[in-house]
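re: ur question from yesterday

yeah so i grabbed the chain u mentioned. its 395 aa long if i counted rite. heres the sequnce exactly as i have it in my notes:
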Amino acid sequence: MNDIAVIGAGMHPWGKWGRSFISYGTAAARAAIADAGLDWSDVGSVVGANTMRCGYPGYVAGATFAQALGWQGARVTSVYAACASGAQAIGTARAQILAGLADVVLVVGADATPKGFLAPAGGERPDDPDWLRFRVLGATNPAYFALYARRRMALYGDTPEDFAQVKVKNAAAGALNPLARYRARVSAEQVAASAVVADPLRLLDICATSDGGAALVLSSMEFARGHGHSDPVRVRAVSTVSPTYPKAVLDLPDIATDSAVALAPAAHSFRASIASAAYEEAGIGPEDLSLAEVYDLSTALELEWYEDIGLCAVGEGAKLLRDGATSLGGRLPVNTSGGLASFGEAVPAQAIAQVCELTWQLRGTAGDRQVPGARVGITANQGLFGHGSAVVAVR
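ran it thru and got these structure tokens back, copy pasting raw so excuse formatting
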């Protein structure tokens, strides 16, 4: 096994704080380093997940955070993969450790996200599908989320009431998480009474945009055991796969699908292939999981992730939810952190935050939201432009 150790995890609470993303990431990094029982000078490499909205420093996040913590000569790397940036940063850190380039790597991501839709950068870019879908269609992210929801309704009989129950479940978990932005329980009636954003999805079906930061300290197993971490949480797999041609289902930000006339689509959808690759690398299957953290950009998308990570057959996500299997106390809780429903989206930080939650759960330190006896967890999300993102952590 090519395991590496998670010896430190830290986060800055999510919210709308009105400060620089650097302050959130630096706070998270210091918390993670303290959690690891190390000094900043012990860190041999910093991998920063970029933000694209915070000016020039956001594009060089590794060096930005290294400077904020105090130059000490560490190797620096910056990565960007939209919502998968955090997973790519973890994958980069893992490669450096396994290659012997560093014993200890700090992974950090943070964002200060403007209110409203996540629009593409300015300028005329007719070869950019993200720019085109805003310019040609006026299709914001919730428009795609609504298309996915309508597809589930048409194919599987899902209902807006099913979608609302995802929010109810995640808000209940978020109410127990002191780092979450939204810490109030929500009823299905409140979801149904919230404003329509993109039919059939309402305001409370869709995640907000937030400020926040998350960080991990990763190390070789040898370093961990030599520095007081005899049985650490381990990263066993990182999946950053891309789609397979042809893609026969509409996928954000594309405004068309590939033709499947000459070549049949792959057996798995893109999202399903992300988890499949992680399971294969880790040598486990969905039956081994204790919990999962998935990217609930909308309530309907969480149901799709249940199927994509193999918790149930295609089309049975809503039934799994109705049976209570994915709630706290259920057979396999999903989004014990509260998910994006409770945090909102701070893009470069979120995939790292998912692994923070797995770390605390596998350590048994997640407090009132603890999954008893948690041993194996998976994270899953999808970055814009075909970036896979899944991490398997074990104890």
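noticed a couple things. Residues 164 and 188 are 5 Å apart (CA to CA). also DSSP finds 14 helices and eleven strands in the chain.
anyway ttyl
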